Amino acid sequence: MLRERFDLTGKTALVTGSARGIGRAIALGFAEFGAKVIVHGSKPSAPLDEALAMVKALSPESYAVTADLADPAQVETLPADMDILVSNASIQDRQPWHSFDMDEARREMQVNFFAALRLFQRAYPFMKARRWGRIIAVGSVQERRPHVEMVAYAASKGAQENIVRNIARQVACDGITVNNISPGAFATDRNREALSNPVYAEKVKAAIPMHFAGAPEDAAGAALLLASEAGRYITGATLLVDGGLGLPG
Fold this sequence. Notes:
Strand order of the largest sheet: 3-2-1-4-5-6-7
Helix content: 40-55%
CATH topology: Rossmann fold
CATH superfamily: NAD(P)-binding Rossmann-like Domain
Strand content: 5-15%
Number of domains: 1
Largest sheet: 7 strands, parallel
Radius of gyration: 17 Å
């Protein structure tokens, strides 16, 4: 039955940046469908504790880890033995491109791109040995529509999408799928301040064919499809979850 193909019982999933927002929604979705979930935050925090409590209510064996992905050494401390890896953690800053601080640009590339690539590398041997694995990157509409004041963030997301396509072909024969989810404008903690401006919020909504911002849960269903047997024949793809924002016209 199709319902059974979404079941993640017996699978372990690491979701980076899952203390809040889209990452938390994905972690909760995986837990609801039976996975043991490793919830991740950059440091101990009340939101991380809250996310873990919510996940454990659905999947009692789940646990939390902390690692600042801006520090390459801390990336190496994260678990490597997992069936499903969701690279969701990212950082962004707004600055004019011509005066963008290079230290900040390097920090964003480390968290958003280099850490993701390293996590993919570390997860691969376990997945290959089991001949089953799911690698999912959470990208951004900025892969295609870069924000004029987020040059480093947009570039890092474009680079991440590129390695998804690159790696997918190479590991498909090992039973591993590699895909990218590309959210559009989402009503998350990160965007709360910007969307609280009614003029800006209306401008954003007007650009979206569905005329509303997405909720974190809107990305969870896409992640569940790509993580489960229901999505076993999808690899190297970018799944747009953007209310039509990426459509031409």
